[in-house]
Amino acid sequence: MSESIIVRVTLGSYDVVHPAEKQTQVYAQIPDVGRASWLLDADSYAVLKDEPWPHVIDSAHEAYERRGVVSDSASAAARKAIVDWLLLSEDADYDARYDAVQAAWEADQARRHPVARKLLQDKERLTAELEQRTRDLADTAAERDSLRDQVAGLRAERHATNEALSDSLQELRAERLSYAERAARETHPGRRQAWQMLARAEETEQVYSALTTPLPVSAPQVSVSADESGTTVTITPSETGGGS
Questions:
Q1: Per-residue DSSP letter, 223
Q2: Are residue 100 and residue 69 in the same domain, yes or no?
Q3: For the chain, which residues score pLDDT lower than 50?
Q4: Phi and psi (nearest 5°) for 39?
Q5: How far apart are the first and last CA of the chain?
Q6: Is residue 214 included in any domain, yes or no?
Q7: Model pLDDT for residues 9-25, shown as the tens digit of each residue
Q8: Does one domain contain both 106 and 12?
Q9: What is the radius of gyration, based on Cα positions, of the chain?
Q10: What gap in Å lies between CA 127 and CA 44, rounded to an integer?
Q11: In whole angstroms, what is the distance from residue 22 CA to residue 11 CA?
């Protein structure tokens, strides 16, 4: 059997009893499935000769079902095998098989008709462009998700940095508190008493420093005046910051 899908619609004399009568023959060949034919009335030729092959097989099968045609068992089994393979498959199998028969019809049309060949070329080009754009959109979506993750990470990092900065500022403020202020804020009795002792020691140290620091002494002011009676020198002691 040829490894290709073929469907042919022909008009001729197929009845040996009535050779003058014309009939439409639908012949189908499916690789690894079989060959079969349907004989229809002559009017079917004009209807089916240019139709897509999946529709041709479906129409021939429907006509036989409607008319209740009885034939030899081998022919009936061959037709049933093709119908079961194409029309009675399900889901992904149906789509794949239907597409295979449709593609075979399109290729046959391209070989027969230049206009159809051009249209099929356009179809292939547009299909390729559509697939490329679909991939581009998928890449764009992935890049967008990656950017969102990066932004979320930066926001989380900024939040952590702000918290760390706030903690550092709190520590700096705490270091600048005096012992008395720390004692006032402390809630634990033992630590509060310790801060109070340090505060009193700090205050004592400040008082001692003030008492022992020498006061600044300025030089006395000296003024000299002269007249007919002689020269007069006046010395005026300077005032200190601690009293007279």
A1: E
A2: yes
A3: 1, 241-244
A4: -110, 120
A5: 135
A6: no
A7: 999 988 777 778 899 99
A8: yes
A9: 54
A10: 33
A11: 7
